[in-house]
Design a protein that fits this description.
The protein is mainly alpha-helical. It has two domains: about 160 residues, no CATH class; about 100 residues, no CATH class. The longest helix is centred in the middle third of the chain and has 23 residues. Helix 1 crosses helix 6, helix 3 packs antiparallel against helix 6 and helix 6 runs antiparallel to helix 7. The radius of gyration is 25 Å and the shape is elongated. It contains ten helices and nine strands. The N and C termini lie far apart (about 65 Å). Strand 3 and strand 4 form a beta hairpin. Bound molecules: zinc ion. The site of zinc ion has 8 residues, from loops.
Length: about 300
C-alpha cells in the first residue's frame, strides 16, 4: 500500500514533526569542538594575552537593575578584566570582517546550500502524503486528534510543515541566485504569504465563536474552502523542482539570527551560536588561528588573532 508513496504514515508524521523541531538551522558548523559551555561567547575560549589563562565572566551589580559583566583572567597574580560588551563588540566586528571575505562567503554559501538541499529532500519525501486528497485526510485525522476547539488546531502541523518547506525553498533559491528555468519564485512567495496571513487571521478563533461571528455554517464553510485552496496551492507548488529567479545571490553570511542584534547589547544571548559562527569564519580562512585578549588594552584594541600554537 505504501509502495507508491515511499513513507508509511507513521514515518511521514515523524518526519513532519522533526522537520519543525530542528528549526532547520542552516548556520555552518565550525568543525572545531566547542569546549566552552558558557552563554558568553568568550568565556573559556578567549585566552588572556599576558598569561594564557582562559577568561571567565564576572558579574557586578550596578544599581538596582543593571549588572555589569567582565571577562576576567583567573590566573594567580593577573586578574585583569574588561567589559564583556566591549570585547563582544570586537568579536562581532571581527566575525563580520571575515564573513565579508569572498572565500569565506563562498564557503558559507556552499555549506548552506548543501544543508538546505538535504532538508528539502527530506521534506519532499512527505509531499505524497500532503498532496493526495485521501491520504491527506488520513494524515490530518492523525495529526489533529486533540484540541479541535480552535479553528487552526487541526490544521497546524500541515501548515507549519508546508510553510517551513516553502520558506526553505525560497531561501535556497535566493542563496544560490540566478536560476533561469521553472516556475516563478515570486509565485511561491506570494502563495506562501497568503497562506500564512490566512492562518494568522484565524489564529485566535475557537470554531464555535467564529461560526457565530461570521454568521453561520455556510460562511464557516467558505472559510474552510478558502483555507483548502490556499493550502493546495502552496503544497502543489512545493512539488516543483525548478524555480525562476533572476537576480544575484541575495542571502549574505551576515543575514542570520546570530547577527541580528549587536553582540555588545545582548551578551549572553545566543552565545554558543555566535561562538560557533565566529569559529567557523576563523576556520574557513584556511590557516589555524586562535584568539587572545589583551584585557588591559584600550577598547577596540583588545582582541588579537594569532596563529595557532604561537604565544604572544
Ligand atoms: Zn592573565
Amino acid at each position: 500500500m505504501t509502495a507508491d508513496v515511499g513513507l508509511t504514515i507513521d514515518d511521514a508524521i515523524s518526519t513532519m514533526r522533526n522537520f519543525r523541531r530542528t528549526e532547520l538551522d542552516v548556520a555552518p558548523e565550525s568543525g572545531i569542538p566547542d569546549e566552552s559551555d558558557s552563554p558568553y561567547i568568550g568565556e573559556g575560549f578567549l585566552r588572556c594575552a599576558r598569561c594564557e589563562g582562559a577568561v571567565v565572566v564576572d558579574s557586578q551589580d550596578v544599581g538596582w537593575y543593571t549588572t555589569s559583566r567582565f571577562y576576567r583572567c583567573p590566573a594567580p597574580g593577573c586578574g585583569r578584566r574588561a567589559p564583556v560588551s566591549e570585547v563582544d563588540a570586537e568579536l562581532e566586528s571581527l566575525t563580520r570582517q571575515y564573513l565579508a571575505e569572498p572565500t569565506v562567503g563562498e564557503a558559507w554559501r556552499a555549506e548552506r546550500l548543501a544543508k538546505m538541499d538535504h532538508w528539502i529532500a527530506v521534506g519532499r519525501t512527505v509531499l505524497p502524503w500532503c498532496c493526495d486528497q485521501r491520504r491527506r485526510r488520513e494524515l490530518s485525522r492523525r495529526l489533529g486528534k486533540r484540541q479541535r476547539m480552535y479553528v487552526n488546531a487541526p490544521k497546524e502541523q500541515l501548515f507549519w510543515f508546508g510553510t517551513t518547506l516553502a520558506g526553505l525553498i525560497i531561501d535556497r533559491v535566493l542563496t544560490a541566485g540566478n536560476s533561469m528555468k521553472g516556475r516563478s519564485l515570486a509565485e511561491l512567495h506570494s502563495a506562501d504569504r497568503e497562506w500564512i496571513s490566512c492562518y494568522r487571521s484565524l489564529e485566535p478563533w475557537r470554531r464555535r465563536e467564529l461560526r457565530r461571528a461570521v454568521g453561520g455554517r455556510g460562511q464557516l464553510k467558505k472559510i474552510d474552502d478558502e483555507w483548502e485552496w490556499l493550502q493546495n496551492r502552496v503544497l502543489g507548488l512545493l512539488q516543483e523542482t525548478d524555480w525562476f529567479y533572476s537576480g544575484p545571490p541575495s542571502r549574505l553570511p551576515t543575514e542570520q539570527r546570530t547577527m541580528n542584534e549587536p553582540w555588545s547589547q545582548s551578551p549572553g544571548v545566543m552565545g554558543r551560536e555566535r561562538r560557533a559562527l565566529m569559529m567557523w569564519a576563523l576556520g574557513a580562512r584556511g590557516s589555524a588561528v586562535r584568539l587572545v585578549v589583551a584585557l588591559d588594552a584600550a577598547p577596540q584594541k583588545r582582541v588579537q588573532v594569532v596563529p595557532a600554537g604561537e604565544t604572544t
